[in-house]
Amino acid sequence: MRPQRMTPELLLNAYAAGIFPMAEGRAEAEIFWVDPRQRGVLPLDGFRISRSLARRMRRGGFTVAADRDFAGVVAACADREETWINERIAELYTELHHAGHAHSMEIWVEDRLVGGVYGVTLGAAFFGESMFSRITDGSKLALAWLVDRLRIGGFTLFDTQFITPHLASLGALEVSRATYHKELDAALARRADFHAQGPIPSAQAVLQRRTQTS
Question: Could you give the CA distance from residue 120 to residue 128 in angstroms, rounded to a whole number?
Fold first, then answer.
């Protein structure tokens, strides 16, 4: 199915049905739906924080924020040679953000946005869309705080869409389409709150909670 014009409402319905949009490139106006046979998911209790990442978290020198510059995160994710994020897709996710259905976790060094990840929330499902790094481990740092936030907020499903070596190293795995839909249906029947955690926790608090679930 190739819609001529998508709306935020149609996009949310698509996620609830297990499909998501992509474009062939930044300059391509056409958007198409994707429904992979094998789906990437990141078990929230299975996120791997390596020793080097834990040291980086403790060392600091950066600030973590949620939804401080959602549009900036989307723009940074699209700022690469090959991207599936065209202008309309960026607009749609920004509209979902304003409606409370899309969020970003961000890494800042002073006033520079240097890492981040964004996605869509429905029920207790978080649909991860894209991430970027402008410093070493920028996206890993954002993911560490994001996974902690999702667990605290009652989320049960972190959909990564596809598997990459980077995501696999952090604990992501592939499941069949049928398994994914079962997990999705269960997540949609639950309630979760992206902002339940309140203030951004310290690195030590994130690492301690991760140790308790290992």
Answer: 7
Cβ atoms of 1 and 33 within 8 Å: the answer is: yes
- For 65-104, b/e burial (b = at least 16 CB within 10 A) is bbbeebeebbebbbeeeebbbbebbbebbbebbeeebbbb
Strand partners, 119: 103, 128
Between CA 183 and CA 104 the distance in angstroms is 23
R_g of the chain, CA atoms, integer Å: 16
Residue with tokens 């996620």: 15
CA–CA separation, 135 and 138 (whole Å): 5
Three-state SS at 189: coil
Question: Which pTM was predicted?
Answer: 0.93
Domains of the chain (ranges, CATH numbers) = 35-81+101-213 (3.40.630.70)
Per-residue pLDDT of the chain in tens (214 residues, 90 and over written 9): 444 478 999 999 999 999 998 888 777 778 889 999 999 999 999 999 999 999 999 999 999 999 999 999 999 999 988 888 888 899 999 999 999 999 999 999 999 999 999 999 999 999 999 999 999 999 999 999 999 999 999 999 999 999 999 999 999 999 999 999 999 999 999 999 999 999 999 999 999 998 876 6
